Automatic annotation (TrEMBL):
One function term, GO molecular function aspect: structural constituent of ribosome
UniProt name for this protein: Large ribosomal subunit protein bL31B
Gene3D superfamilies in the cross-refs: Ribosomal protein L31
Gene Ontology cellular-component annotations: ribonucleoprotein complex; ribosome
UniProt organism field: Streptomyces bingchenggensis (strain BCW-1)
Stored InterPro entries: Ribosomal_bL28/bL31-like_sf (IPR034704), Ribosomal_bL31 (IPR002150), Ribosomal_bL31_B (IPR027493), Ribosomal_bL31_sf (IPR042105)
Length: 86
């Protein structure tokens, strides 16, 4: 790697505003806000709207919104897909 062209990766706390969850990970994102973490150290804080703690796909609450019968019409026209593993 060339020196001086890569961003610095450091520990950062991300806070999910929807779920209230916080997690510590590494990031190159910049922020001026800081937070004291459970280990007593202070880390940069980045607020996010959605994370795996609140996103419907990861929480298992996702639904297919089908108000016009598109899924059923597709399945009638083209049939169901082959079972997994074939």
């Amino acid at each position: 790697m060339k020196p001086g062209i890569h961003p610095v990766s450091r520990p950062v706390v991300f806070r999910d505003r929807a779920a209230g969850a916080t997690f510590l990970t590494r990031s190159t994102a910049h922020t001026s806000r800081i937070i004291e973490w459970e280990d007593g150290n202070t880390y940069p804080l980045i607020d996010v709207e959605t994370s795996s703690a609140s996103h419907p796909f990861y929480t298992g609450t996702s639904r297919i919104v089908d108000t016009t019968g598109r899924v059923e019409r597709f399945e009638r026209r083209y049939g169901r897909t082959a079972p997994a593993g074939r």
